[in-house]
Amino acid sequence: MAPEAVLSLKGVSYTYPGSEFPALSQIDLNIRRGEIVLVTGPAGAGKTTLCLAASGILYHDYGGTLKGSIAILGKDIRDYPGMAGIGREVGVVFDDAEAQLIFSTVEEEVASGLENLGLSRDEMHRRFHTVMEATGISDLADRAPHTLSGGQKQRVAIAATLALGTGILILDEPTAELDAAATATITDLLLRLSEEGVTVLIVEQKLNDLARIAGRTILIEGGAVVKKRITKTVLGRPGDSFRPPVPSQESVTTPIISIRGLTHHYEGVAALKGVDLEITSGEIVAIIGENGSGKTTLIKHLNGLLRPTEGSVLVDGLDATSAPTAELARHVGLVFQNPDTMLFAETVGDEVAFGLENIDPGHLCAEKVDAALQEVGLLHRKAVYPRALSRGERQRLAVACVIAMKPRVIALDEPTTGLDAQESAEIMETLGRLRRDGHTIIMVSHDMHLVEDCADRIVEMKDGRIVPGKRTPEEGPCPRSCSMSPGRASFTASTRSPN
Amino acid sequence: MQYVTREGIFHRLHPLTKLIFVIVVVILAVLTSDTAMLAVLTGLVLATAAVAGLARDLLRQVPLLIVLAASLLILTILISPDGVTLGYLVPAAVPVVGGIFPITAGAVDLALAMSLRFTAMIFAFQALVISTQPRELVYVMDYLRVPVDYTLMFLIALRFIPSLQLEGRRISEAQLARAYNPGRGPVGKIRGLVPILVPLIVNSLSKATVLGLTIDLRGYRSGMRTPMRNLTPGRADIIGFCCIGLLITGYLALLVL
């Protein structure tokens, strides 16, 4: 171990309990005080496992077979008295932000760790306000965590960890759900912390600004380090490879969705404030905006999951303010951000068949199931247990479940969150084909590059309203978002793990 | 059932005062089977909540309490017939099976007493939970020397109630978007639960690991807890204790009389 290394992994291999194959193989990594090390790699490469190993969680909490040595501040993790002891030195932000929010208000969430450090009340207040401001969540202090958007939850989880003031931070995809502005805030904050001597280990698939601040970027694949130091030129943009074909002329003239004066209040918060939007048939429309701007609330009105407090919503000739959700589901398919909210069946085929059975009971057509799976490239996985699929495959299965029902409109909420560049490209290719077949696609995303690459029109939301002015990708995105995302990782098919 | 940010008397009370209030209500409710006394006790708890601006939150539990009371009534009619017969669960006019389950005054009285007892206890506990931040409850339990494992179990249980509700709603929305039909008839309804329950259980289990780790990493076993908010008892607590004292005195007086 190098003398100045504060986090050191030497010959670390790990096999999960019940698994035959190692998730990590012979990892050597020394991180110096104040260094930011970025670990990247395709989905299933072992990035999360590396975070769990480095923080001592695998040894103290998971069991399994751990070989090699891991030292934190020169002390072997086996010599720490459990995670409570390691927690004094290491702060960990997990990829599932929601699961690490324990309390009933944001203020309580961030203060909770501070109260266990034996600090004076003045010091606690000072540290609390510093962290809340630095992470940009001061205005959310009284909100209940469960009412926040995905990106806001992620910032609260980061703030609660930063408040602990540990010298080492291990962050698992901390910006996956953040918009460009919030990503820049967190990136700048991490840079400042590293200058103050905090050591940071981050794993992330979409590198964005993180590559800019990282001292080293390491590529792992199949549980092993394949490149110890990758340069920023490797991290170029994927280009227009998945730009969808332009729809036929007649399909872009008929309006299929018409929203007028849509207002929605939720638990005393005005989530939408008079939204007007018209979408023509065959368009790919991207809805962008900062976390909590009302994007998800808007698309939930398209199939009756939410009903307006005021205003009208017409979808494919149906009044979505009163039509039953079961009826609207035939016209509008909604793919949720997390596919795990819907997967319950024993096989991939049964999962797709569920929706078809619902809209046409007793007339299940096996060809329709196969066609939907073929469309998303999962036909060969038809007999597999859905939760055994990779994250990207599960996302594609969620798309298959919706397109099997042949809705004219397909709305997707953050369809590429948690996916690597290759998986994102596959989803986008699928959407391109669906548009060619006459579907209208509405996509909520905070990934500006994705949106630029594939949308016909970009609708920007802010504070529950649509920002005036029609924007096409050729005109460019809003200056604020664009300037904050210089590039993202691109992994060719050859660098993907074979999972 | 979770903390709600609000300005009210109950929110201003020291968490220990509120905890003692709940314990006193539970003890008083358990010690008597007199329906009149239990009705007064329930009324007092509700009145206290109303003064603190929490009545509407408590009354949301009424549908659940009605189901509970109806279940208790059927149970007592079936297993504890006592006193004057007021009628029959199956009317006497029905051939063969008519009049087999007599509804007795004793059974109704017992069901009423048990329902009121549960109502008083649930109302008091809910008033505590919605007016006290979980970390303050943790602080009080530490102060009372409750072992840290039990405190953390309590914390996780409190956290999981709203979390399960939220996850359930999210899963329900995802299935409704696939034209999910909740099912008809008893068998259909049970079968219809599968698309909701399977993801709910699997997702909750996966979140539980991260939750446990987060609690450890935030130092909840450090034993060095210092509340960021000043939790010194104030004038409201003195008034609170006087009210609790009056409640106990009145209760004892009624028992003696």
- CATH class value of the largest domain in chain A: Alpha Beta
Q: What name does the CATH topology of the largest domain in chain A carry?
A: Rossmann fold
| Range of strand content of chain B | under 5%
**Which sequence of strands runs across the widest sheet of chain B?**
1-2
Q: Could you characterize what this model shows?
A:
The complex is a heterodimer of chains A (499) and B (257). Chain A has 16 helices and 20 strands. Chain A has two domains: 5-235, Rossmann fold, CATH 3.40.50; 249-494, P-loop containing nucleotide triphosphate hydrolases (Rossmann fold, 3-Layer(aba) Sandwich), CATH 3.40.50.300. Helix content of chain A is 30%, strand content 24%. Residues 233-245, 247-252 and 474-499 of chain A have low confidence and may be disordered. Chain B folds into two domains: 1-132 and 230-257, no CATH class; 134-226, no CATH class. By secondary structure, chain B is an all-alpha fold. Chain B has helices at residues 9-12, 15-31, 35-51, 55-59, 62-79, 105-131, 134-143, 148-176, 185-192, 194-217, 235-256, and strands spanning 85-88, 102-104. Chain B has eleven helices and two strands; from the N terminus they run αααααββαααααα. The mean pLDDT of chain B is 85. In chain B, 70% of the residues lie in helices and 3% in strands. Chains A and B meet through helix 3, strand 6, helix 4, helix 5 and helix 11 of A and helix 7, helix 8 and helix 10 of B.
